[in-house]
Amino acid sequence: MEDNKKILYSGMQATNTLTIGNYFGALKNWVTLNEEYECFFGVMDLHSLTVRQNPTEFRQNARKLYALYVAAGLDPKKNCVYYQSHVPAHTQLAWLLDCFTYMGELNRMTQFKDKSAKHADNINAGLFTYPVLMAADILLYQTDVVPVGKDQMQHLEITRDIAERFNNIYGDVFKIPEAYIGKSGAKIMSLADPTKKMSKSDENVNATVFLTDDSDTIIRKFKKAVTDSEACVKYDPKGKPGISNLMDVYSCVTGKTSAEIESEFDGKGYGDFKLAVGEAVASELAPVQAEYNRLLKDKEYINGCIKENDEKAAYFANKTLRKAMKKVGLTEMIR
Ligand code: TRP
């Protein structure tokens, strides 16, 4: 590890296939971060267990997420891409931190409230302490910055609160992490209702484009995207949310500004524009998908990457864990 590089940590839950929202909003922006930061990216499989999983599908989904990370360009030789559940320090530190987190704090988490409303039949303790495990993920690596979406900001704040509380008692054990503010991706909205965030669990099949959709499906979904009746490609997120969302997507692929996109489609109809967006997305994703399919078959390579990075992650995580355990007064193991 280069001493002068700051540490960056992030990850995604190991459930379902990713959407282009996850791709343009997060993953695509992660691939160049290792130039500036020492990067850790976890397959957050432990967090996924807060919702009941089919074991076989779950195991496959975790593997698919790992392959997608790599296929999207997270080079596992330059980034520590690993499985959260392979590094026991995460759950060990989470227990310690549980004892420094108040019920009232966890009760205020909006994600907990949302998820308990959604899964009223399974409001388990893991769902409640979810943010503490996330705090452990981040704090174990002495993380400087965490790229997270708006929806995870509250979890980052509680992470900072827990870390400060612990440090106030025991000295500087944890680095206090900040949100990563840099070029971050666009928030991609549903193609069926552009006032809602694109979601992997939308009931409308045309609302969501998955990273693994084939070209025809991608183009068809964009053709069906809900827009307005003005027939004018103009950026106006409030007045024209559908068109503005498509422009955001197009901008993510081409790097063009909204002004450039407006002039490119000046005088053209929505049909032309939607087709152009669909084709642009399909051709950006084609090589990622090809690499993803290749990687899923190259078991040996992926296994090697996982093993190497699990060990690297464990090395750093255990350093922090040992320090925290010692500080609270747990007896060190005799070696
Ligand atoms: N909770 C995050 C999400 O659902 C995933 C996550 C778990 C995470 N641990 C993390 C993200 C640590 C960043 C850092 O998106």
How would you describe what is shown here?
The protein has helices spanning 20-30, 45-48, 55-71, 89-98, 103-107, 110-118, 125-140, 153-170, 215-223, 241-254, 258-264, 270-297, 299-328; strands spanning 6-13, 37-44, 80-83, 145-146, 178-179. It is mostly helical and 335 residues long. The chain has a three-stranded parallel sheet. Strands 4-5 form a two-stranded parallel ribbon. The longest helix is centred in the C-terminal third of the chain and has 30 residues, at 299-328. 39% of the residues are buried. The mean pLDDT is 95. Residues 9-13, 44, 47, 134, 137-138, 146, 148, 152 line the site of tryptophan. Tryptophan binds at residues 9-13, 44, 47, 134, 137-138, 146, 148, 152.
The string of secondary-structure elements, in order, is: EHEHHEHHHHEHEHHHHH
Computed structural class:
mainly alpha
Distance between the termini: 26 Å
Number of DSSP E strands: 5
Q: What's the total helix number?
A: 13
The percentage of residues in β strands lies in 5-15%
Strand arrangement within the widest β-sheet reads 1-2-3
* Major beta-sheet overview: 3 strands, parallel
Q: What general outline do the C-alpha atoms trace?
A: globular
Helix percentage range? 40-55%
Unreliable spans are none
Radius of gyration: 21 Å
Mean pLDDT rating:
95
Hetero compounds: tryptophan
